[in-house]
Amino acid sequence: MPITSGKCTKLISKQTSEELKMTQFIDTKMWALCKKGKVDSRDGLVQIRKRDLERLTTEVMQLREFLPKVVNGDLIEMLQKARAAETMKERLGQEQEQLRQECLHLRSRLDAAQSECQKEREEKLVLREQLWESREQLQQQAEFCTGLGAASCTLLWSTSSKEEAVKDILADGKLQSFLSVAGQTLESFVKSLDGEAKAEQQDSNSHEQQFVLALAGVVTNVAAVTCGRDYLSSSAHVLLETLMQLLELLKPGVFPKLKVLMLMALYNVSISVKGLKYIREFPGLLSLIWTLLEDGDSEVCLHALRLLQSVLLEEALVGPGLLLNDPPSSTGAHTHPGHLQPPPGPEADGPGDTG
């Protein structure tokens, strides 16, 4: 246990009192001897007996011999404890100073971290504002591109109603790229329709729907021309398969205008022998047509029946052997496809592919 300064003072006081008692004891002995002796008035000396003096000397020597053993042992122990206490005090002071320096260092690091955090928070706010601005610009660009695409495809839809225009499109060599974009756009749009409720909430006059309808209308008009449906029958199998898959994805009553245009395009392609063979090879074609016949829209049911008629009657009337040749220019009602023109309003009316 360390000795405090108060305890050290108490031990020193204890030692001093012991020495004082010993001195008083010697003085008392001397005084007693002086009383027994004779006093010489001339010299002021005291005469005592030799035996008493020897006894006093013996006692004093004994005190001088034993007193240091008792007093110095306590003093040495007390001094050692005092030194240990002083050393511990210095060590505790050094540790306290070290802890204070570490505390100051941690406080400075905390201030730096808080400053950096505040800076990052401000940068985050700036980046968030930039993100909102970028989203707004992206939304505006998307709306602009959709409107531009709707306007351009509507003009192309109107132009493709003429056979000469379709021939020019085929001669330009860009039809394959257009059909690839059209198929991807139609697939993306149909998959974005989240059921019947979402489809009913969409504006039928929106740029997005007009864009999709115009793409399907252009494909239908291209298929209405002999050279166009021959091209689709031989080089656009991916698009034809996409159209049939999208008809499977669209639920009954959802976007009937798009269903009608895709059915009309398939019907026009079925006029070609190659196109009819490819459509008939599609798995689940009859089940798809039966599902479309249960649709609530009469136009969808009508064009589903026409496609079914084209698939069944062509095989029955022409026969397997004649399917290898190109069909004549006029073999039945379904061999006279008309052209679709974009409607002035939301309605997709027009001559269609009637005979």
UniProtKB/TrEMBL annotation:
The keyword Coiled coil applies. This is Heat shock transcription factor 2 binding protein. One of its GO terms (cellular component) is cytosol. The gene is HSF2BP. Keywords: Coiled coil. Residues 82-130 form a coiled coil. Residues 327-355 are annotated as: Disordered. It comes from Oncorhynchus kisutch (Coho salmon). The keyword Protein transport does not apply.
